[in-house]
């Protein structure tokens, strides 16, 4: 239950603290006094969106903090799954900075809004005036059935199987689309691939062949120049080597006279050896140069093939052609293996579909089992709420899988005897919606382990004896849940174990909303004003005391 609520710098609230009673808390006040503001602040703890427009003072951050007792409600699993510290008293805090940035904390651990919603949805439920409109939607009606059926395990299993099926089906569909496109391109890709394979491309081959062709095309000139170079170095008549031999001979002679010339001799001898070696290599290279027109033509053909392929595929070198060949090979191979891949993907999608259908059947069975009990219980409660001729029929249809199952739930309602039930949104008035919603909340309360339930004017459109019965229902629910009820009806206000009054304080330069817990005498006066207006008569005051006295007697029983 909500044991403490702190609101700072929110809307018309400068700072407000509230420690609600364990049972039925009544909140009253004039329209516009700030009751909905408090509800909005609690909504922030449940993960609702907010922005800087909620700041009372735009230069300070807003803080909403709630301390909620969760002992005995068996929600430890959620804390474990979200990796949060668990304690019997959970502190939930929301902060909105001056820049509009929002932060949320659970037991001082930062969390995102999704985690905040998941955790606090197990602690508190708010019925807003908008919920009565939601009651007409099939989605909301389905949620009611699921809550009554307590089929969370089946719903969780179905959603897991639904996600698995969607993933398998999407993969199969994508593979089919790819297969269709790839088959259209297969012949062309296969032709290109085989052409490149036939070319037998080798890395760096082009550069090597281009160099060889250059030599072959200039063979006569190269051979002639190598011959001239050789003859300069070594021929029978006159050459560099002959001159160098003379140099060595002279240096050998004088080095015998003085060893100071020995180094010059050694250098000359080394040069002679090097030149002879160079001459030999030039001679060998000359012998290697062939004038081979056939080989040159073969190389030209090979290079022309490479150039044509590069132009055709708009690439710069053989390495890019090889990469393209490998890429085409993968595409061709994938098409050749498509049938196996498609068969496997289809088998997986079919198996996932069968598992989904099994989960859907189990979920549908859990829902169908409770339809009659819901109709019966609500029928009895509507009778107690002054609608003896009202009837509610729940119609279930099955269709295609959706994230919530294969079922479409429709609440068919009739408020009058002999009138065929129709879609709820088409036939129910405001007061009928309120009574029906009260009946639904009442039966669901016993199905949910929920610490706190908040009602925002669920009594709209009712009065008199019906309001008294709705108050009795709230008081009954308060034995197992903490109830916070915002109301304008004195019949309900008198049922509370605690009564809070919201009002506007105009004493300062800026209006603020405040709340105070009423004493017994203050409660008498407030309820009397709800009965008879601003200046209640003695009979209104007496009536208010009687209402509170009756509540006290009923509580004592």
From TrEMBL:
Residues 148-185, 209-285, 335-362 form a coiled coil. One of its GO terms (cellular component) is bacterial nucleoid. One of its GO terms (molecular function) is ATP binding. It comes from the Bacteria. InterPro entries: DNA_recomb/repair_RecN (IPR004604), P-loop_NTPase (IPR027417), RecF/RecN/SMC_N (IPR003395). Residues 2-507 form the RecF/RecN/SMC N-terminal domain. Keywords: ATP-binding, Coiled coil, DNA damage, DNA repair, Nucleotide-binding. GO terms for biological process: DNA recombination; DNA repair; SOS response. May be involved in recombinational repair of damaged DNA. Belongs to the RecN family. This is DNA repair protein RecN. It comes from Spirosoma radiotolerans.
